[in-house]
Specification:
With 324 residues, this protein is α/β, with parallel strands linked by helices. Helix content is 49%, strand content 18%. The chain is built from 13 helices and 12 strands. α6 links the parallel β6 and β7 (195-201). It is globular. The model is unreliable at 1-33 (pLDDT under 50).
Length: 324
């Protein structure tokens, strides 16, 4: 009897030891998990279209080059505002409540929402045309401006389309970046003796009608980075082709979809540049000590099918700059 009790006590002690060891292992694993918890990054953009998606992909790819892989060292929470300003505010509030470690805001509207809401979290903007005019210069914020080099754009007009006298633009008045670019282009056009005709839209549903009214008045269409126009760019190309009006774009996505040419930094390059800046912050740099940058490495690209459609021959000076 005593032997049986001793045996039972021994078994019980063994079980307690095993359970204790297992609990210790679980606790150790939990502690380990906490030690390697990924950095939480919130990324948002006003709407999804090829141009902005290229920027986001460039950011993610550059972070991986820098050693920050989604799902491992970092966790990326992407939120699309679906083109609605009210959604940008909701996303900002959500990122704030979730206490993200850093936030990336692609486009001016998304960046402005972060500026208005976020406190105590570094914010990196991307594809913001006029950071100062948009009120995005201040504590806790930096980023990359995709300001279009207006002089090189008009040089391209003169060289590629020398017969052009009237330039058309379509833009959304609710986008500060679009208004800024329109005013800048209009001023440069007047300086160089061009006539400028503009059409205003407030929704993508208005693009077709606005172009029907604008295109008969112009010799070419100058399409800047306007998110509403970009979302409806297939319609822009269709209408312009039907009217026999070539498009000069400012982003590669426009050229891919039917604009004849562009001379600007690619959206992917903008993303890479933003990713490098973000990696510095992840490595411990103070966001307040990093000034905003403008895009680098501009490139001249064309859509060969569009050139052929309009019967445009590349001058030799442009052929030498062409990037495939």
């Amino acid at each position: 009897m005593k032997k049986q009790m001793v045996k039972r006590i021994g078994v019980g002690m063994s079980l307690l030891i095993v359970v204790g060891l297992l609990a210790g292992c679980v606790k150790a694993e939990a502690t380990g998990d906490e030690a390697v918890k990924p950095i939480e990054i919130g990324i948002t953009q006003i709407v999804e279209h090829p141009s902005l998606d290229e920027i986001r992909q460039g950011i993610i790819d550059q972070l991986e080059v820098e050693g920050y892989r989604d799902g491992q060292e970092i966790h990326i929470d992407f939120q699309n505002a679906q083109g609605a300003i009210e959604n940008t505010q909701m996303i900002a509030q959500e990122f704030q409540s979730q206490k993200k470690d850093v936030i990336v805001a692609i486009t001016t509207p998304s960046a402005q929402a972060m500026k208005n809401v976020i406190e105590g979290i570094p914010v990196v903007f991307s594809a913001v045309t006029d950071p100062e005019g948009a009120g995005l210069i201040g504590p806790g914020m930096t980023g990359v401006s995709n300001l279009t080099p207006i002089e090189s754009q008009f040089d391209l007009f003169k060289t590629l389309l020398p017969e052009v006298k009237t330039i058309g633009m379509i833009y959304n008045t609710a986008e500060a970046n679009s208004v800024f670019l329109m005013e800048r282009a209009k001023k440069k056009a007047e300086e160089l003796g061009y006539k400028m005709e503009v059409a205003v839209i407030t929704s993508t549903n208005e693009v077709g009608l606005a172009l029907d009214q604008l295109l008969p008045k112009v010799d070419m269409l100058y399409s800047v980075q306007d998110n509403m126009v970009a979302s409806a760019f297939p319609v822009v190309v269709q209408k312009a082709n039907e009217a026999g009006v070539p498009i000069i774009g400012t982003v590669q996505a426009f050229v891919d979809q039917g604009a004849v040419a562009m001379d600007n930094a690619s959206d992917y390059e903008v993303g890479l540049q933003t990713g490098k800046m973000l990696a510095r912050i992840l490595a411990g740099a103070n966001v307040d000590e990093i000034p905003f940058e403008t895009t680098q490495n501009t490139a001249f690209t064309v859509n060969k099918e569009a050139l052929a459609f309009f019967g445009i021959t590349l001058p030799e000076e442009l052929e030498g700059r062409l990037e495939e």
